[in-house]
Amino acid sequence: MGDYPIALSYHEKALEIFQKTLPSNHPDLATSYNNIGWVYRNMKDYSKTLSYYERALNIWQCALPSTHPHIKNVKNSIEIVKKEIIKSI
Predict the structure, then answer these.
(1) What pTM was estimated for this model as a whole?
(2) pLDDT in tens, 54-73
(3) List of domains in the chain
């Protein structure tokens, strides 16, 4: 448990494959960004977390209906991470 660097490397490899094989606005690409953000969040690297979550959100907002749960969940995650950043200052 907690072997986040290994998890990160696997998610980054998956992202590379998706970037080569999927259109830049494909929802699966957003899922990959979200997964990497989740790993960074657990590593407490909040600036990278926000970057990846925001990439996921941008794609999902273009590719999915505005009521889709992925959009709601990542927006909620972004707000939580912003609060964590404020707490860490």
Answers:
(1) 0.94
(2) 999 999 999 999 999 999 99
(3) 4-88 (1.25.40.10)
